[in-house]
Amino acid sequence: MTAQQLRQQLNVRRINKPEVDNMVLEILARPTLVRPLLQEVVLQDRSNHFSAGWIFDHVMRKELDLIFLIRDDFVSALNQLQSDSCIRPMAHVCQMITERYFKKKDDPYVQGFTTDHLEAMVSICFDWLIGERKIATKVFAMTSLFYLGEKFHWVRPELRSFLEQNIASGSPGIQNRGIKILTQLKNLGY
To answer: Which residues contact 110 (CB under 8 A, 6 or more apart)?
Structure first.
């Protein structure tokens, strides 16, 4: 599959789950397609499609290390997105990255993501958390912020304050994750 063929397949019609699985395998077999896939996520954001974001998320679930091929572009793309359908998978990827960096202390992530990359993630995750976003995006954002707070010490008190003020009015999913994060913050002395 070429980059052009990838774009065509992503924009012909809505893609079903078996087709997603096949495209994920194609991209895993040809890692150079990760960059055109990310570019398509940004383009589809402007056109109300979301298949590229869905596939991007599934590719990263299978082989997160592919993010190193595009980490600068990935972080830059986060601020460009507007559609919840495109933001949600990117928020999930942010969560996976922060878990590998902070929770697992996976050396390639610790060495490969700079302070600038992480600061950009802090900014966009707070935007997603406080903005009018869907539940999954907010849950992924608050989890990423919890981990990012290990490096940026001001983040955890801000996250705690936000959760304490807003958790009661959140959905059951936000309340559930929020309570878990508040408990973790409390256990860490925040």
So the answer is: 101
